[in-house]
Every structure is written in structure tokens, then in C-alpha cells.
Amino acid sequence: ADEALRAAKIVENDVAGIDVNMGCPHKFSVQGGCGAALLKEPEKAAGIVRVLAQNLSVPVTAKIRLLPTPEETVAFALGIQAAGARALTVHLRHPHERDRDPAHWDQLRSIVDALSIPVIANGDFYDLDSMRNILASSRCHGIMLARPALWNASLFRCAPLVHALPPGDESTLHIDPGPALESVAEVIRNYLVQCLRWDENYKNAKYTVMEMMTSRRHPLRISREKPKFEQGLDMGAVSRTKSLIDLASLWRIPSNVISAESRAEAIDAPDGETRACLSATLPATFRSLTERQPLLPLGSKATGSLLGESHGVEQDDSEGRAVEPDAKRRRKLGEK
Predict the structure, then answer these.
(1) Residue 251: which of 225, 222, 223, 227 has the closest Cα?
(2) Quick check: 134 and 123 in contact, CB under 8 A?
(3) Cα torsion 304, 308, 312, 314: sign
């Protein structure tokens, strides 16, 4: 707990909150007693949350997976709430389950009913129908997306709006459906515009675009038509790009958006050609950023990946393989 507090203090003034991840089941987490390993030590887990909540000026939240029984999950969640967590995200799989295993949506309602803090659902929400269903059936307070963000990031723009009901009201939730999903090509173009705006690291941007073009991270039961791209827009062409400018040019981003000299004016006050790329297809979350935040020129410090880094993978410089950051660091240390 003390080590967690020292780490949190470093970033306390730069973040809106601290989330304790108790759900990661991968070896690099659990072998050090982190991630899902904490599910087996409820007192230790609650102690970490308690120390953070009592000593930080920002809210503390937590993310967990399901324990062996629903009763154990509820008991663990109650302990986290009592320790001072302001919200709880539940990945609706057990630690031993992987992406190919369906999430257990039916286990969320008992957790929501037991807690007084907001509960957020995570696991297999690839479309608006699944979001509506979990919101209505569990009464949860929100939904967290991970892999679906690579499947189609416009899910964030299209997420249904839920109108709150009085406590105890069990009538059907009124949910506004929101706009339709964008095509994968539109999502990629809008993503690249934001990469230019924020001077995104080229390798992260390239990796993320390639992930958007494939379905390899998604369960087989999540079906979609193979994305159709214009001629010349394929994996081979993307892999041959050498810079963010190359990547943006390949995807037909207007030249005045690509140019560092005219980028601010083109994005903030688009002409007809640029507007065709940015207008209604620009996700609302991205649009709100562009309306409020200054541009970063190319060559300034990268601000971190919008999607790539959060997915926990990097592209290996030498061999082009995707590896987990911890594994990459360990390999480098071994070479030294």
C-alpha cells in the first residue's frame, strides 16, 4: 500500500483519479502479486484502496474480475467500497478466462444491488444492443470498452444515453439510441487526423491502424463483414509507410491537414475538402477535444497513444512483432 501511494503521489496533480487494476490475469502482473492476484487477498486489496483514498486529493476507483462464486465477488466488492473506492468496474470474466470465453453478464446485477457506489460493466460490449441490454438488466451506471475500441471507436460517440430513474423504480429504462456506427475507414481517417493534431508517436499510430483493420483480437462470435477499403488501402501498404505523414497521405487525409503550417487553420476552420473528411463523421468526443485544446506541432513531445498504448502493447523496433511493454523491457535488460 505504501508503494502504491508513493507511485500515486507522483501523478496526483496531473490526473483526474487513480484506478487500481485488480483484473489483469497475465503472468507479468500476477507473478508480482499485482492485477488479478489481489483477488485472492481481499484484505491486502482493500488496504491499498484505503491508503490511497485517505491520502490522495483525487478519487480512487478499482477494477476487478469475477471471483469463484457470486457471493465471493459481492463480498470482495463490498470490501473495496468500504475501503473508500468511489466507483468499481467489473470485468465480467474470471481470471482464468480469456477473450474467447463469453462474459458473464448475468452476474452483474447482484453486485450493483449490493453496492452504493457506481458500478461499471466491462466485457464484450461490441454493439449498442448489448449496451442497452446490460444497462437495463443490471442497472449499472456505465460501460467500459477495451477491445471494442479497436473494433470500432465510434462506439464511444454512439453509446446510448440513459435517463436516470428514481431509486427503486424498476420500470424500463428510456435509452436514446444515438447515431449509427461509422465505417472502419471513417474511424481510421478521423483517428489519423487526431494523431496529426496531437503529434502522436508514429509507431503507435501505425500499430493502432493495423489493429483497426483486422479482427484478430476479437472473439469469433463477434462477426462483422470484412472492412472494405479503397483500392491501395491494405495491410501491405500500411506496413510500408515510414512516418505519420506517409500514413496520413495513404489514407487520403487532405494535404492542408497534413501540412504543419496549415494544420491548425484546416482543422479548426475546415474548407470544403477538409470538411468532407472531418464533418459529421468526426466522433463527438474527438470534436470536443479539437474545439477546446491547442494544437501540438509535429516534433513536440508525443502525448501518448489514443488507443495503442492503452491496449498494453508496443511494436518491436527490430522485428516488427507486437510485444508487451514489460517483456520488451526485460529483454533489453537481458541484452545489457
Answers:
(1) 227
(2) no
(3) negative
Give the integer Cα–Cα distance in Å for 266 and 254. 9
The pLDDT value given to residue 294: 34
pLDDT at residue number 49? 97
Q: Per the structure block, which three cell numbers stand in for 88? A: 468499481
Q: Which region, left, alpha or beta, applies to residue 113 given φ > 0 means left and ψ of -120 to 50 means alpha? A: alpha
Chain position carrying cell 475507414? 185
The rounded distance, in Å, linking the Cα atoms of 195 and 201 is 8
* Locus of grid cell 460490449: 125
Q: CA-to-CA distance for 327 and 30, rounded, in angstroms?
A: 14
pLDDT of residue 268: 59
Hey, what's the torsion of the CAs at 7, 86, 93, 218, to 10 degrees?
A: -70
Q: Residue 333 is inside which H or E element, if any?
A: helix 325-335
Please check whether residue 83 is in contact with residue 58, taking contact to mean a CB–CB distance below 8 angstroms. Answer: no
Angle of CA points 272, 274, 276, to nearest 5°:
70
Closest CA to 85 of 106, 107, 64: 64
Interatomic CA distance for residues 289 and 307, integer angstroms: 15
pLDDT, residue 79, reads: 98
**What is the model's pTM?**
0.69
Mean pLDDT across the stretch 255-272? Answer: 63
Which residues are identified as catalytic?
Answer: 24
pLDDT grade for 122, boundaries at 50, 70 and 90? very high
